[in-house]
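Encode chain A's predicted structure.
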Amino acid sequence: MGIWLAILLPFVMLGARVAGFILVSPIFGWRAVPVVVRSGLVLLLTVFFAANIPNAVNPATTNWLYAIVLIGQEAVIGLALGLMARLVYSAVQQGGMIAAQQMGFSDAGVLDPISGSQSRPIATFFEMIFALLFLAAGGHHILLRIISSSFSSFPVAAAPDISVLAEGIVVAGSTMLLFALKLAAPILAAFLILSVLLCILARVLPEMNILMASFPLRVGAGIFMAAAIMPSLNSFTIELAKWMQKHLIT
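Encoded structure for chain A:
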């Protein structure tokens, strides 16, 4: 039993952390990525880390029950780090959802080919463009550096600081909302002005059906504003990538 623990436990612990991160992280954890590719990536990264990280477990003082606890700890760390990256990455999708809500596309749901869930056309369009820009900016390297640097922040076989992980998830969630509002702010401002103009028009022409007339105006204004903010999506991607480097890579 001690021989099997000495051989397999360090490798399985590293694999549990890497697998947890890959499972929920953006890009690597997308449903569009085949399971075989994700499994191969987990195995490749585990072999790489196993060759560079020394074994911190003494098999002579370890039993099977304690080994299961250690593997669970590593999986929790990987899941928490992947969730932080996923929340921050979802800022663009949430910004697109806000824009779609203002345009009246709240009921126009389509299948997102990236996440595999129901989304809205504008949100899906923003997310696909952002994914290309994120990859072009080296975002996949940032994700790999997050899991790599986690081994120095949270050493293998050491009990994880749950408060630090929970605080990181809360900060990532608030950052997601902040970036989403920042992206959707021009669209919200445009629709606020449009609503004021429609209210004035309803007073001037009370016989006019403002509700029906507002639908094409909202769609047209939304498409125009989406096209207007599209050039700024590159700087938005760089800003989000810098936030990941500063707060998720230590």
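The chain has a mean pLDDT of 82.
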